[in-house]
Amino acid sequence: MDMGIGGRWALVCAASKGLGKGCAAALVAEGVNVVITARGEAALATTAAELRALNPAVEVRTVAGDITTPEGRAAALAACPQVDILINNAGGPPPGDFRDWDRDIWLAAIDANMLTPIELIKATVDGMAARGFGRIVNITSGAVKAPIDILGLSNGARSGLTGFVAGLSRQPQLAGANVTINNLLPGAFDTERLQKTLAGAAAKTGKPLDAVTDARRQGVPARRFGQADEFGATCAFLCSRHAGYITGQNILIDGGAFPGAF
Ligand code: NAD
């Protein structure tokens, strides 16, 4: 299927590794020019080289910086001639016990996983509407639908974003101008973050890493972890010409892990 987005420009945040990189790769394969961001220059340069090799016809620009800061966001936006597609992503907040979290810890999580995407949407969405095309995908988490106790910071901040997006995406001046805003909710994906989480669980419980990994995998009906490229493919479809009637949705990609009908 031709996604019909060749030649467009995408800003893909936090994209040197993992799910962000999967989204950038899928868009590049469709002929989309990308600006990718991450904090570390080295990983960003390696990923940019991979993306250029994947499709030499597109332009790949890199911006090293923290997307959760005003400076990081300004630099990312300045590097993109026009943002037709915005993929919002950043590292997730740490796990823990809410009794240990003070106001500053909460504000950092809300800044990273709620206000940063909102600021980037604010900076881009009206231009998209004026041009009659826009696609915004926020990478959130399956924990929005099935909150996990120790991920309280993530549950809270991402639920705030989800509620906000539910309202904004339905504004007629956006939905009526072919601008869509959707959230992609990953379950367990085989990325560095998941590896670190599993290693942490193994260290905490004293169980072998293999056993912890296998138990987690067995908890997924698909009996495997997701791959970043399949996450990217779903993202590219949501950004495609064909997905203009899908907006304000929360789309789980979790191998069947969420047990509910809706
Ligand atoms: P990852 O650690 O594999 O990759 C994260 C990427 O984001 C890296 O490129 C890193 O450099 C970049 N990054 C992190 N913080 C940044 C910042 N402040 N500014 C710029 N770049 C930044 O993580 P992932 O597994 O791809 O996860 C992506 C998001 O999805 C996270 O918010 C994570 O919490 C969420 N998530 C992941 C899973 C999973 O199973 N992998 C499940 C649920 C939710």
TrEMBL record:
<dbReference type="InterPro" id="IPR050259">
    <property type="entry name" value="SDR"/>
</dbReference>
<comment type="similarity">
    <text>Belongs to the short-chain dehydrogenases/reductases (SDR) family.</text>
</comment>
<dbReference type="Pfam" id="PF13561">
    <property type="entry name" value="adh_short_C2"/>
</dbReference>
<protein>
    <submittedName>
        <fullName>SDR family oxidoreductase</fullName>
    </submittedName>
</protein>
<dbReference type="InterPro" id="IPR036291">
    <property type="entry name" value="NAD(P)-bd_dom_sf"/>
</dbReference>
<dbReference type="InterPro" id="IPR002347">
    <property type="entry name" value="SDR_fam"/>
</dbReference>
